[in-house]
Amino acid sequence: MDRLYPTLADALADELFPEVDTLLRRGVHLDETDARRWHFLNAAEEHLAAFYARYGARLVRAAEGYAYLLPGESGALFARRHLAREDMLVGLVLALLRMDPHHLQRLWLLDEDTVLLALQNAVGRGALAEVLSGRKRAVDEETGNREIREAVGRALSRLARLGFIDRETRERVPCVRLRKALYRFAEPFRDGAGQLDAARLAARGVVMLGQDDADSGDDADDAA
């Protein structure tokens, strides 16, 4: 029995429950970045897991130190949504960057130009432009570069709303901070698939988040 929340009613009565519940149902990933909500989730985990199970959903606590709500395949009362292909691609490349210990010295903070370069190196500029713009015919380089940058910005905003990253500005330079939830994107190549192969599969729309598809959020909020 939990000392802070002896019963489910005690957990639901906490002022943090409505906030945490709303975020989880929206597909947001939580970690220690938000200390108060994370502490509540840890303290009430047993009760919350049983609570969401009644809705046909599972409260997942990943070994890397983040949590999210996963609707069941069928019969769940929460809707299951999928990330857009461009979000999957950007998320997967960000996961590769998160797994690179070189970035630890900057506490996983990267400028957005580094992200753009990593995307181009992973799948090639042509494939990247096609995925992000939805355009198969060639355009002039300036227009293509602008479309890529804008599309990546929109994808980053959607991933930030789901708790995969934080967007920051340092000395007027747009940056992203890579959070632990990005490890969800790493599943396609943890069993031996090459990192670049996984990125190329994401560009083709083949790679998903396995059985743990994240909520893509509302289209109305897609603006960067």
Name the descriptors:
6 strands; 46% helix; 2 domains; disordered C terminus; Arc Repressor Mutant, subunit A; three-stranded antiparallel β-sheet; elongated; alpha+beta
What would you say about this model in short?
The protein is an alpha+beta fold and 224 residues long. The chain has helices spanning 8-13, 17-25, 35-43, 45-53, 85-98, 112-123, 125-133, 141-161, 187-190, 195-203; strands at residues 30-31, 57-62, 66-71, 109-111, 165-170, 173-178. It is 46% helix and 13% strand.
Task: Name the shape in a single word.
Answer: elongated
The first-level CATH class name of the largest domain:
Mainly Alpha
Report the major sheet: 3 strands, antiparallel
State the CATH topology of the largest domain.
Arc Repressor Mutant, subunit A
CATH A-level architecture of the largest domain? Orthogonal Bundle
Overall structural class, as computed from helix and strand content, comes to alpha+beta
Average pLDDT score: 83
The multimeric state of the shown protein is single chain
Strand order of the largest sheet: 1-3-2
Distance between the termini: 44 Å
Q: Into how many domains do the coordinates divide?
A: 2
Enumerate the spans where pLDDT stays under 50 for 5 or more consecutive residues.
205-213, 217-224
Task: Determine the fraction of residues in helical runs and give it as a percent range.
Answer: 40-55%
The total strand number stands at 6
Task: Report the portion of residues in β strands.
Answer: 5-15%
The topology string of helices and strands comes to HHEHHEEHEHHHEEHH
Protein name: Condensin subunit MukE
Pfam families: MksE (PF21980)
Organism: Plasticicumulans lactativorans
